[in-house]
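User: Predict the complex.
Assistant: Input components as received:
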Amino acid sequence: MRRATALLGLLAALAFAVPASAQEPDPPPRVALPPAEGEVRPGLGVETSHELGDPLGRPLSGEELDRAVAEVAADIRCPKCQALSIADSGAASAQAMRAEARSLLSQGYTREQVVGYFEQRYGEFVLLEPRARGLNLVVWAAPAGIVLLGGLLVALRVRQRRRSADEGLDAYLRQVEQETAT
Amino acid sequence: MTSALGQGFVLLGLIAAGFGTAFGYIAGVRRSAAGLRLTRRLALLFAVAMVGACAVMWYALLSHDFSVSYVAQVGSLATPLHITIFSLWSSLEGSILFWGLILGLYIAAAATFQRRGHEDYLAYTLATLLGIGTFFTFLIASVADPFAPTPPPVPVDGPGPNPLLQNHLLMAIHPPMLYLGYVGMSVPFAMAVAALLRGHLGATWLRPMRRWLLVPTSFLTAGIMLGGWWSYEVLGWGGYWAWDPVENASFLPWLTGIAALHSGIVQQRRGTLKAWTVILIMITFLLTILGTFLTRSGVVNSVHSFTQSPIGPVFLGFLALCAAAVVVLLALRIDTLVSEPSNERLVSREGAFLLNNLLFVSLIFTVLEGTLYPIVAESLRGVKVSVGEPYFNRMAVPLFAALLLLMGVGPALPWGGSDPKLVRRALVRPLPAAAVGLVVALLLGARSAPVLIVSAFAGFALWVTADQGLRPVRSRPRRQSGKGPLAAVLVAPDRLGAYVVHLGVLITFVAVAVSSTFQREAESTLRAGDTLRVGGYEMTFRGAERVQEPHLIRHQAEVEVSTNGRSRGVLYPSLNIYPNQREPIGTPAVRTSAGHDLYLTLMNVGSDGSIGLRAITTPLVLWIWIGVVVMVLGTALCLIPTAAERRATTPRAVPDLAASPAGGGR
Amino acid sequence: MNRRVLLVGVGTSLPLLLVLGFAFRHDPQIVESPLVGKPAPNFRLADLDGNVVDLAELRGKPVVINFWATYCVPCLYEHPLFMEGSRRWQGEIQFLGVIFQDDPETIAEFNSDYGSWGPSLVDEGGRVAIAYGVYGPPETFFIDRDGVIVDKAIGLLSPDQLLDVANRMLAQPAAATG
């Protein structure tokens, strides 16, 4: 009963709270600046290093970093949106993920490591391009298969029609010969 | 009261369609003229019932009659008038009702315009169309009833339609265009069924079929383009095509429709590929039903999909029924469609058409398989996967490039292709144009191999398209030259139309390739007075303001745009906040010019007055839409009757050579 | 009867229809987390008052982490449930709220109006949400005494599910902590 009254009270409050909070626009991003190494507030944050292992590449910066971030971002699905990548989406969580990718790449993690990190956290679903292994090979191989199969059918058809057309012509010539002979 | 009236009209439609289906097939079997007359009347009655039902719904929407459940679902007193009108198709039940209206109009048109010259097939055609109508009216009368009375208490106001649909006027025309395309595919399908049942298809079938296929294909072209444009103008991510499952669903029947149009040309010229054309038309129809199923059943993740509803299984059942009917009918009757014997070579016009169909089928298969694979993976592996933009781009771009090459090579090749010297000359002559395309791309700064290849192909194809399209004008007989080029074109407008469509495809193709390669973007958090730079533009943030409108709150940023220190005007990207909707919806501000677009999106507005601004410059975006407009105009040209058709009403008198849209190469 | 056409037709349309039929068994909105059964990523976050919470220090006690925001309506529906839960299992289960893309001030205001059921942790840069692979609020992670994620709820958490998982976590012997 108490829970029910609490819920009712909350719902009543919601009627006011929601429009009130809706007037506040999207919260300002608290993600705009990538926490460069050593810049994170001391002691706070999340431990990712033991899952990621050691950085396998070299730290990137400047335009090279921008390019690498863009490449990774184009292959990661924005979790909140539908078919968009985090590169294309303006959603706050997509911005946070771009910032995370930037931070990791600037620390020397390779693209594969960064993509792998997102996959490990969100599941295979965040990869916009399925990995070519196991059953997924079907989705990669099938288009080539259909082109080859179709090509074969077209080639067979052309050959077969040519032969039947030749036969048709031969028969016609024979008939003409016979008719002219008599 | 309103509810009952609307339901009455739907019921009337259901009865007319049901009886019409039965009478039509009987009339077809017995070749009964009286039966056909009755079927035509029932077809018109069906159309009247659908018009009536939609009129009642519009009346309910406009009078804010919230006792009708659909109005309670999408209506709201604050919604502006024009949006209330469009809200007929803004939600599931209404969109199916609207579907019924369009089907009714198409059926009425088929019953009216196909009276002469097509009698042989008409009874079967109408019966099949009314069969489809039976399904849709059944749907409207049962699981998707928009007229169901609202359970009391009847609300005094409603939530209004989906805010995304309120944001731009394009939403008013994009869905009707798509529906006109989707639903219109029923007509060629019904004609294909009729041809199979009759067991033959001649000129009296092919000509009207082409026309009935051209119309919906062209609507689909426009609808898909408007969807891309809407996505670009409203969704604010700077792109127009995301290979979203629902986008793919509209893309698939468009591709099969085009493939069928092309194989129909071969049939017209050579009397071959008859069965293949029929198969393509049937697949096109099945894909429209599949697409509708994907959009409405909630089985795929998509921006555009409607919420999950009981309609899914019913639609799947209908799809299964149609697929079964198509397979059985094809298996039983396809051998009646005998191709005329003809000699075929790969390097000839016919060969190019065969390759064209091969590429289209591969493309269709790839898109279909990529769209459905996530469902397969989840069923077999139990894991959700995504197949998204990077995959489709990688797979589809080579196929599109091959189609582009074929668009140049195909029309250049002579029919038959038996003379190697002629073939060689046809292929060598456009080569300078290909070289020009290559040089232009190099001068513009393109260095990547795919872009250079596409440019060369595009140059080649452009030359061939212009050469072939203008041939009737240039080579008109001397004694006719006094009549002017217009008269020469009017002999066979469909021929010119076909090449105009090709020209539009070329424009769009090049614009898409260039715009996706040379996009530049920058993003930053700005305070008043800060400047963001991208692609030669400087964007200075002047300040943001909050505007209260009746049905939304808009945050609007004032951004001054300048190049080289000279002001180019002010843009106002904004974020709209609708009540009951947490995520603000951005309206980007776009500065369009012939060369490129500057695209500003407001990402967020901070409480301290700062904004997150994203700026993208994309070259040639305008030309994507222009290309599509050219395609639609070209299709319109194709619909003008040829001189031969105007002269003679007897189909036998149609001289095939002059009337062929892709004829020539003489 | 053309057998080839029949075969090809049935061979292509039947699997397609089966695939589509199977699609109904899955909710497209729900993505299973790969983290269930794996150790929970450790984090140290400050709550609204600046008190630091270290997940590693809570080892030995089951933890419920809820990612939420004031703009998310199901989160608000969950609020009484967590209030009740934190009261019922006081001292036995630690409830933690992680703010998902929301303004700390708005959260503080909400908490003072409706009460809070645990620390509201400020996730700078959303990095903890990424480490937990959060698609959108509300999402609830259940972490057992050993620091392993035993379950995850997406969307509105039902009282039954909370009760069920809480009892499962509590039933695990405390001695297993190592």
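The mean pLDDT of chain C is 89.
Let me know if you want any component modeled separately.
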